[in-house]
Amino acid sequence: MKNYFLILALALALLASKAFAWDCIEGNCEDGWGKSRSSKGIEYHGHFKDGSWDGYGQFHDRDGDWCDGGNRNFNGVGMGHGVRQCFYMRSGQSFIGRYSRGKKTGDGIFYTPTGNIDRQGWFTGNKLVRSYEVDEQQLMDELVELRRSAPEWLFKTAPIEVRETLANDASIEEGEAQSRIE
User: Fold this and answer.
1) Is residue 52 part of a domain?
2) How far apart are CA 96 and CA 143, in angstroms?
3) I want to staple 84 with a disulfide (CB 3.0 to 4.6 A). Which of 69, 113, 159, 180 is the partner?
4) What confidence score (pLDDT) does residue 177 get?
5) Mean pLDDT, consecutive 10-residue segments, the chain of 182 residues?
6) Residue 82 vs residues 1, 101, 112: alpha-carbon distances, Å
7) CA 140 to chain centre
């Protein structure tokens, strides 16, 4: 019986990895900076370690939704964690907060299209479960530190809305943000 569950778990893991396969399309997707694309059309541009997303990276889907931030040991199938900022182009909303296994988990803030706070607090599995005031500056400080580690070419591939946000980011030193988006 124990062997049956082990075989079933391995089969499900294999199916999940095949259903969401990633291909390296440019650079060093093993240990360095590169770009990969999933079978679902999602692209990741960022740092890799041992073939997994690790460190700063940006990812976007076919609909134009775009996120950037930190990843640790992310294999593209739902593992990994970090702090991210996301822009949802269809709704105009944005989010900054913590992720784990590809879902909003921990402190986070959703913003309206006009930049006002919509909701904030503790998220579990993409759902707000407890409302409270989140330390927005702490999240931004972590994100900016991650952005500083990235090569300039990475910012040139970001959507215009994102590049404008980066250029207006007061916590990135003057001149540095502008040079990253030109």
Assistant:
1) yes
2) 9
3) 69
4) 42
5) 40 41 91 91 89 85 85 56 82 89 88 94 94 93 83 76 64 45 39
6) 37, 9, 23
7) 14
Bridge partners for 103 per DSSP: 100
Is residue 85 a contact partner of residue 68, using CB atoms and an 8 Å limit? yes
Q: Is residue 14 part of a domain?
A: no
Asked, for residue 8, whether it belongs to a domain, the answer is no
pLDDT at 20: 54
User: pTM to 2 decimals?
Assistant: 0.72
Q: In this structure, what token pair is assigned to residue 59?
A: 């990812």
3-class state of residue 46 by DSSP: strand
Q: How far apart are CA 45 and CA 37, in angstroms?
A: 9
- Predicted local distance difference test score (pLDDT) of residue 81: 67
Residues 6+ apart with CB under 8 A from 115: none
CB distance 181 to 168 below 8 Å: no
Provide the domain limits for residue 81: 22-181
Domain membership flag for residue 15:
no
Q: Rounded to the nearest 5 degrees, what angle is found at the Cα of 81, between the Cα atoms of 58 and 56?
A: 30
State residue 162's pLDDT score: 65
